[in-house]
Amino acid sequence: MTSVLFQRARVIDPRNGVDGIRDVLVTDGRVAQVSEAPLVAPKDARVVDATGKWVVPGFIDLHVHLREPGEEGKETVLTGCRAAVAGGFTGVVAMPNTKVVNDSALVTELVLSRARDADLCHVYPAGAITKGLKGEELSEAGELVGAGCVALTDDGRPVMNAALMRRVLQYATLFDVPVMVHEEDLTLSAGGAMHEGATSTRLGLRGIPASAEVAMVARDLVLLEETKGRLHVAHVSCEGSVRLIREAKKRGLRVTCEVAPHHFTLDDRAVGDYDTHAKMAPPLRGDADVKALREALVDGTVDAIATDHAPHGVSDKLVEFEKGINGIVGLETALGLTLALVHEGVLTPRRAVELLSEGPARVFGLPGGHLAPGSPADITVVSPGEEWTVDAHRFYSRSRNTPFHGRTMKGRVSQTWVGGRCVFEDGQLKESR
Amino acid sequence: MRHLLGIAGWRRDELEALLDRAQEHLPGGPEASHVLRGQVVANLFFEDSTRTRSSFEVAARRLGADVLNWSFAGSSVSKGETLLDTARNIEALGPAIIIIRHRSSGAPHLVARHVKCAVVNAGDGAHEHPSQALLDAFTLRQRWGSLDGRTVLIVGDVLHSRVARSNLVCLKALGARVVLCGPPTLLPPGLEEMGGEVTHRLDAVLPQADAVMCLRLQTERMAEAFLPSQREYSRLFGLTPARVERMKPDAPVLHPGPINRGVELSPAVADGPRSVILEQVANGVAVRRAILERCAS
Ligand SMILES: [Zn+2]
After folding, report:
1. Residue B228 annotated as binding?
2. Residue A206: its chain B contacts at CB < 8 A?
3. Are residues A321 and B104, on separate chains, in Cβ contact within 8 Å?
4. B25 is in an annotated binding site
5. Residue A318 pLDDT
6. Distance A310 CA to ligand 1 centre (A)
């Protein structure tokens, strides 16, 4: 019987309506007690003095690219899990666009077995909507869900075929898993390298209009209404999408969405003089979009903050901007960027925690996300005021592609606990092997 | 070592000083400078442009430099070799200046960040073509003395034009008013933020222009459906003798070349008395000498 007692923590547990100083007792991998009155540590319990710290449900990232199988030079399940726990995440959803696509139980099982070997955090695979992500034939969703997939997505690519999109929304209701979509009308984004606006004009880069995303969101909401399915819109980047999703939610459609920290932090001006570290899909948008995303984070339109952690090698970015590969790593900077909104007064601490833990758990129906007695002791301990400077060379991720290198952050992960075991503490991994 | 990556960021007095210096490089000017004697200037062209490449080559030789020419247009960058690999290989030959033309916007910026010699942008994607803008400004300044209060009308495919962007920034910095005219599909957003005024009505704006600069219409734009046809484009935006009649009596017509005769310019206009196209070419060498000198200093 192993126990941990967190003393004098500020416990923020949105689902259970807790925000105050509490002691938290963990026994056998589960939360045993959350108490306003000081608790007595059981014999042999580890006691963590959490004065000045937040004890919150472990963060869950709905959108992570682990690159295994196929591109292990960029990331593996193991290195991705290291980056995750270093960022305070106790669970990540692994996108299926690996270089053997996760469109079969075999690949799902491989990812899960690598995750067991890594033994750091929960890895929830997502299966492909279509075989080989080709957008032609439905993959065997029953087999994928049976093997452990928690969502279906062709992320990295949109489902351009509307009839096929309609069918997957219908078909997935069999298993009640969300269909997660990367919204991009390829005929509108074709050849574009960044957001279409004054900056793309100044730089002479072909722009991706906001309509490339918004038009697809509109299409899929129409299909959703007809099919009574479950739609999760990935990495929402612009004002028009937010407006449509807000309205659809009001009308009771089963739609959820996520926003990535880079989209609520940076606008298209971050491209500067062709900095490929500011190149992603969807692209960094205009300042009005950033403002709209922040409002949507506050008012509940957004369900989750998800990083779209997309590791790439140095040579993928050290090229002409138009040739640069899309994506940045995000696991190790997500908390700092989210807390920046708290320090700016945009988000309450409670809402920030909700967006990182309870929200994502609810959206995909994952365990965790709250700290009620009996729930898994997946816990993140945050030092909200600690200042630090992002050094990409010290990332646990195998890749360093971030536009935030050198940025000063306020708020840091102090400890990450998964199933009652400390896996990350004071900047160090605690691997079981 | 001073790069020339674009016009953006230049102060007016710096531009005027460079144009003043170019004046001295015109035939009949003071004794020629040989600041680049014994040095190597590398012409690195990933896109065909005999006109710009030759102009830089003549300018470099007049300054005493040896010129190395690489042309990668079409294919020949060896498989897998990146732009930076190529640039570093050429840097190893020890040039004082690398002149680069590339179809990707920002390519010279990437090279400039990773080599030790000066980099001159000879046209990058749809971004900038600073030496062209400087020679255009030079040509106009020669006629007018100053660009203050003058209206320059730029007509055509602004979306894909580096000449338009560099000229907009350059002419504005020198005190001119810049009006951009073309079909809505070829005028990108944000031109006003760069200081331009935007219109789609050529005939309405022609009488205001002190100079008209026509942009080359790239024929592949038809395939991408930016326009219904060349025929319709030339009807709506081509400079014909009838349209020249609507212009101010002495307003010159500029074109960066090569011309699609009968599309953006009628042959009668291209070869007519308003055309300063050949002056532009001649001035190009003097302006580029001033540019290379500045990079070497
Ligand atoms: Zn995506």
Report:
1. no
2. 126
3. yes
4. no
5. 94
6. 9
Interface test with B, best of A196, A202, A211, A316 (most B CBs within 10 A): A202
Q: Which two tokens stand for residue A55?
A: 């004890």
Interface ipTM: 0.94
Tens of pLDDT, residue by residue over B84-104, are: 999 999 999 999 999 999 999
List all residues of chain A from 280 to 339 with a beta carbon under 8 Å from chain B.
315, 318-323
- What residues in B contact A200, CB-CB < 8 Å? 188, 190
Interface size A-B, in CB pairs within 8 Å, comes to: 72
Cα distances from A135 to residues A67, A69, A158, A215, in angstroms, run 20, 21, 8, 18
In the block, which residue shows the tokens 């980099």?
B119
The per-residue pLDDT for B192 is 97
3-state secondary structure of B80: coil
In this structure, how many other beta carbons lie within 10 angstroms of the beta carbon of residue A46? 12
Neighbours of A30 (CB within 10 A): 16
- The average pLDDT across A77-97 equals 98
pLDDT given for residue B282 in this prediction: 95
Name the band, by pLDDT with cuts 50, 70 and 90, for residue B79. Answer: low
Give the integer Cα–Cα distance in Å for B104 and B86: 15
| Cα separation, B131 vs B218, whole angstroms | 20
Question: Token pair for residue B19?
Answer: 């144009």
pTM value is: 0.95
Q: Which of B5, B109, B128 to mutate to test the interface with A (most CBs of A within 10 A)?
A: B109
- Whole-angstrom Cα distance, residue B179 to residue B202? 10
